[in-house]
Design a protein that fits this description.
Elements: E1 6-10, E2 13-18, E3 21-28, E4 31-39, H1 56-59, E5 69-72, E6 80-82, H2 85-95, H3 102-122, H4 130-138, H5 144-161, E7 163-165, H6 168-179, E8 183-188, H7 193-200, E9 209-212, H8 213-216, H9 224-233, E10 240-244, H10 247-256, E11 260-264, H11 269-280, H12 287-293, E12 295-296, E13 299-302, H13 308-311
Parallel strand pairs: 5-8, 5-10, 8-9, 10-11, 11-13
Antiparallel strand pairs: 1-2, 2-3, 3-4, 6-7, 12-13
Helix pairs in contact: 3-10, 3-11, 4-5
């Protein structure tokens, strides 16, 4: 493994970051077999014409004196699954004799996400689990007496199939934010395995606080987990910005704790689910308006994680 900058083992899959590339390899007898390669995108470190004279709340332009801490969600924000959930579901359902078009599966996913957002807005103490998402996808496709067995089979199969990837660009982004004087934290519903993953990806030393739901007894979207972060960091809500990839857990939970949030939505699934839910309430929300304005109810929507460098000077 000489020459690699970092490596970690998750569910019998190795993820290796090397120089300008991100590699995913699976252990094979006598060596490693490369199964995925992604070119690292160079970080954009310049600002993009955001007027510093404009009000901070309108531009989301910050400095480390006003907002000393940035907290992150983990899965889907700092690292991601390979293959993506939608692609895996298409393949898995096909193996179970349930052939769906991409548009059909996406509609099921968006319906589930929109319903989840509504439930959480009504009750932030609700727990959000991947199993509930699988249930909403599988329920229309299988008989009621088959559903529980199919749900367990899908959950187990996904756990075995997924590979976890931390791009080198994420490490460099966090390093740059630290250089600019920001304190970094993680607020996550992941297990203790996240600590090992952060250690082997060279991220652990960049984060001052890692708040895990299983350690503190409360999970996102409950605002109490964000309040625990504030207490440990000895900061006020206005001194923290939270970045996450789930509207229901990251945005609603952080906002209810008084913390400004950024929604990281590279595939636009969350934006589409928001628009769909609003349409169900007979509100006019144009997905293109959300995409162009990059704001929804005061929350900035990011299509790239390195857009944070535009906002945090």
């Amino acid at each position: 493994m000489g020459g690699f900058s970092c490596a970690f083992h998750v569910a019998s899959k190795w993820v290796v970051c090397k120089g300008f590339q991100t590699l995913i390899a699976t252990p094979e007898s006598g060596g490693f077999r490369l199964v995925f390669l992604k070119q690292k995108r160079k970080l954009r470190r310049e600002t993009f014409g955001l007027s510093r004279s404009m009000h901070q709340k309108e531009t989301n332009q910050f400095n480390s004196d006003l907002v000393p801490m940035i907290s992150f969600g983990a899965r889907g924000t700092l690292f991601y699954d390979q293959p993506p959930l939608e692609a895996w579901l298409l393949s898995y359902l096909n193996s179970r004799g349930k052939t769906l078009e991409e548009q059909e599966l996406r509609a099921l996913l968006l319906n589930s996400m929109a319903h989840r957002n509504e439930e959480v807005e009504a009750d932030l103490s609700r727990s959000i689990e991947k199993r509930s998402l699988f249930r909403s996808i599988l329920a229309p496709l299988f008989e009621e007496n088959e559903l529980e067995a199919e749900l367990q089979r899908a959950t187990d199969a996904h756990h075995l199939a997924v590979k976890v990837v931390i791009p080198r660009s994420v490490v460099e982004l966090c390093e740059e934010l630290k250089t600019r004087g920001y304190r970094l934290a993680i607020v996550s519903n992941e297990s203790e395995a996240l600590i090992e993953l952060l250690r082997y990806s060279q991220l652990i030393d960049l984060f001052e606080r890692v708040i895990l739901a299983q350690d503190v007894g409360v999970a996102k979207p409950d605002p109490k987990i964000f309040q625990i972060l504030l207490e440990e960091a000895e900061l006020k809500p206005a001194q923290v910005v939270h970045v996450g990839d789930r509207y229901a857990t990251d945005v609603l939970g952080a906002n209810r704790a008084g913390i400004l949030s950024f929604l990281y939505d590279p595939l636009r699934h969350e934006s589409l689910a928001i628009a769909q839910a609003e349409a169900g309430h007979q509100k006019v929300v144009d997905i293109e308006d959300i995409r162009k304005q990059r704001f929804y109810r005061g929350t900035r929507i990011l299509s790239r994680l390195d857009e944070l460098l535009e906002c945090f000077e």
